[in-house]
Amino acid sequence: MNRETKGTIIKVSGPLVVAEGMTNARMYDVVRVSEKNLVGEIIELRGNKASIQVYEDTQGLGPGEPVETTGQPLSVELGPGMIEAIYDGVQRPLDAIMGLAGNLITRGLYVPGLNREKKWNFQPKVKAGDRVVAGDILGTVQETTLVEHRIMVPPGMQGEIVSIEPGSFTVTDVIAELRDGEKTHHLTMMQRWPVRKARPYKEKLMPIIPLITGQRVIDALFPIGKGGTACVPGPFGAGKTVVQHQLAKWADAEIVVFVGCGERGNEMTDVLLEFPELKDPRSGEPLMKRTILVANTSNMPVAAREASMYTGITMAEYFRDMGYSVAIMADSTSRWAEALREMSGRLEEMPGEEGYPAYLPTRIAEYYERAGRVVCLGSDNRIGAVSAIGAVSPPGGDLSDPVVQATLKVVKVFWSLEDKLAYERHFPAINWLTSYSLYHDHLRSFFEQEVAADWTNLRLEAMALLQKEAELKEIARLVGLDALSPSDRLVLETARSIREDFLHQNAFHEIDSYASFSKQYKMLMIIMHFHRASVEALGQDTSIEEIARLPVREEIGRMRYIGEQELDKLESLRKRAVEQVKALTEKAEAEV
Amino acid sequence: MVKEYRTIREIVGPLVLVGETSGVKYDELVELELPSGEIRRGKTLEVSGDTALVQLFEGATGVNVSNCKVRFLGRGLELGVSRDVLGRVFDGMGRPIDGGPSVIPEKRLNINGSPINPYARAYPSEFIQTGISAIDGLNTLVRGQKLPIFSGFGLPHPELAAQIARQATVRGTGEQFAVVFGAMGITFEEAEYFISDFKRTGAIDRAVLFVNLANDPAIERIAAPRMALTAAEYLAFDLNMHVLVILTDMTNYCEALREISAARKEVPGRRGYPGYLYTDLSTVYERAGRLKTSSGSITQIPVISMPEDDKTHPIPDLTGYITEGQIILDRPLHRKGIYPPINVLPSLSRLRDKGIGRGKTREDHADVSNQLFAAYARGKEVQELAVILGEAALSKEDKAFYKFADVFEDKFVRQGHDENRTIEETIELGWRLLTLLPKSELKRIRQEYIDKYYPEKVEVS
């Protein structure tokens, strides 16, 4: 079966190349363009003409040069060696590229996604004679200290193991032979998978376990479930990237895939330098040992940017299939949409809203639908999850932007970043009134069993106060603060405490950067118990000023800096807070 | 032997369609010879079959269909560089305009450059002292950063940019920066201001200027910033110098881009700007930073004048998404007579936290800075409230914040054109202003720093 065809370039316009003589080519086949050997992908076929988006700079290309199809759709290599790697949008390892080409990314370089020389120590989990089906685990490789790479039977294969051996192998060495009737498959540790096609699973499940992020405003107010989807839209400077980085650092996923899609080069460098230094709060190992980076920065070729999101999510699905919980962050999906728009414009397609192609909402929906908590292929029915979090960068922070609207239609969590909060240096600048999470009901039983029975009530109580605060501020703006009743003033005080002492979190402070559920719960409890005691005290002739002056208020302002090892300090702080309010009431009574 | 074509078919704006071509490549340099012998340059924007679409850099005046000759040179637009470019003034196409001889190039570089491999980058983390408190203290500039100035018409951005170029030093070494100045479509007076300021302070000896004036062909503006950055990359990564690149005014650059896009009849994006404006801008802005293999660096300060002072206009908006923060100049502050009129609240330096703190500036820098931000934000909020309710209705605490905001603008933000404050002076000033507030309100500062640095008895008027 030789599908390879050779054609000739007839037109070059930026990243778009049109070639003729491509009768046998198929849609989305990868092609090699010109003698410079640039990588491209067929995105339109008309008669014997193919429109090709080229993943590299097309300067110096012209009509008459050859184009050759590989007969393969754009695929990634899946196997040991992906963790700790940094890839470009079409899975070329950037460290190897630097070894070949130096500081700048030049064209026509071909480096396979997985290192062909490196040997991995393979330990079989099945033996000759066993019957296996697609997804069954053949054996394992300890890829990093954090990740055990499970070698699976590729989708679509099954049969009886003829031979399997432990030992040290490269990703192209045969590790097992599988007989399926007449056919014999020679299995290696590497699979190839086309990026635009979702990897199969048995069954999709509802997300019922929260993805713990250590970020108070997210975990407590707007949680995301494992296998859920979330988006973070916001104007520039509102802290999208910091939120994404915080999630990549602290989320309790076993694998993190971070896609830098059309963003700043320095941000990827930051991740590259910082993650090996940072310790995972659960295992104490460097965070890099569970991270894969896909970096297609804004100045790298625009077509490869379009591919980078698919490259990322395919890798995420592969680790999900092993039974892991994977989180994929894409920063930013707007740049991906712009890449679509640019290619669409060059294809002279009829534009939809704001010049974006009419199929934009479909593409966005397809991407987020690849997230989810699933029963994986294989006979052991293990469960894996991909949680997808996408940043959106709407022009001017305007949420009516087509990318934001198409995203909100599919995602279940909306963290609304606001520049006004960012100016006040309230970080994370997630607006507590407009954001939402649709996972509260799914996650409720987890929170109530694993954290505390009154968790939901505490959250609702805090949210109600924040809502009330917004109303009261409107009134205060018209009539002045003094015209408010003492109980309303107390609401304002407590809401401010929730905002400043609980929701505000300093990503750059060594302790404040991450808060466990138990710390979050205790912090919120202190604020709410202090509030409840104060409400009672107000009813017994204590003035709001007296409460506001209590020394314990300052301690509450600093409770965020209490480390995870000394959380009992929070309990004694809570007691002190309530006692100080009580003492006020007693004093008031004594005076009467 | 280069083929010559006399087959021009169409001329629309700066675009020329040449027919019956063969072997023409995309993005190739083109020479167009007028009957008078005058030579114009351009590049191919699209090649399709036997036609090539050429964009002229210098406008199409005088070009005609029958008598002009077109040559395709088989290479992209290049700039010849050597150490001798320092101290020189060029036009937007890299030709000397200071009356001096042309530079004998050590090498010729394609002005489009190639993207820096993210893996090869070193993270910017060294503090640059600009001597301006609103920048150093709150929106710190870091070596290798790209930090634009968002300004408006009539605001003093040239003064501020020149002051930064003059005063910027790497702390500790006192080492000064080489300055690469790229001017796109600015007026003679503005260009002259920079040139004479560089001459006055002697900075000209370590500066390279690429000047495209308002009456130069708009199309040359596309090349000017790339010329400047190519020179900067050579100085930084070949000669290991620290380079400060000032690009003014990016708004003119974007308008030139729109002109070409419109002439090509492309589907326009927001406000008529092309849909690829983001990608195009990124190929300018991303040419900043540091490399692991070189001790040099490129720090970029593009200037953008926001039409109608509107931050959501596509040019500042897309810029903000690529650059690492922004310094915003504010008209109300300017009217109050405050120089530099930097509105610190919407201004931001994303790399601040990497460039400050113990060993770099001072351990309490970040906390003091956060506290100043929070206090000023609250002060401004109180001032708004006071407009409605009257000052008398404010609580005692609020009054303190009210006063703080005023004093902050007057003492901290305001400074002289030649006033060069060290970072210690800036932080000390910050502490003195914070004494206007109740000590219990200093929630963003760690207790240990309050104990160590809180000033005893100071008078702030």
Entry summary:
The complex is a heterodimer of chains A (592) and B (461). With 592 residues, chain A is α+β, with helices and mostly antiparallel strands.
Rg over C-alpha atoms of chain A, rounded to the nearest angstrom: 28 Å
End-to-end span of chain A in angstroms?
A: 98 Å
Helix/strand structural class of chain B: alpha/beta
Estimate what percentage of residues of chain A fall within beta strands: 15-25%
CA gyration radius of chain B, whole angstroms: 25 Å
Helicity range of chain B: 25-40%
Shape of chain A: globular
Mean pLDDT of chain A: 91
Give the overall form of chain B: elongated
- What is the total number of structural domains of chain A? 4
Query: Which homologous superfamily in CATH is the superfamily of the largest domain in chain A?
Result: P-loop containing nucleotide triphosphate hydrolases
Organism (chain B): Candidatus Abyssobacteria bacterium SURF_17
Keywords (chain B): ATP synthesis, Hydrogen ion transport, Ion transport, Transport
Protein name (chain B): V-type ATP synthase beta chain
GO molecular function, one term (chain B): proton-transporting ATP synthase activity, rotational mechanism
Description:
The complex is a heterodimer of chains A (592) and B (461). Chain A has 4 domains: 6-73, Elongation Factor Tu (Ef-tu), domain 3, CATH 2.40.30.20; 115-189, OB fold (Dihydrolipoamide Acetyltransferase, E2P), CATH 2.40.50; 212-437, P-loop containing nucleotide triphosphate hydrolases (Rossmann fold, 3-Layer(aba) Sandwich), CATH 3.40.50.300; 452-591, Bovine Mitochondrial F1-ATPase, ATP Synthase Beta Chain, Chain D, domain3 (Orthogonal Bundle). Chain A contains 16 helices and 26 strands. In chain A, helix 5 (302-321) crosses helix 6 (333-346), helix 11 crosses helix 13 and helix 13 runs parallel beside helix 16 (568-591). The longest helix of chain A has 25 residues, at 455-479. Chain B is α/β, with parallel strands linked by helices and 461 residues long. Chain B has 13 helices and 21 strands. In chain B, a hairpin with a 2-residue loop joins strand 5 (39-48) and strand 6. In chain B, helix 4 crosses helix 5 (250-263), helix 6 (277-285) packs across helix 7 and helix 10 (365-389) crosses helix 12. At the A-B interface, strand 1, helix 1, helix 4, helix 6 and helix 9 of A face strand 5, strand 11, helix 6, helix 7 and helix 10 of B.
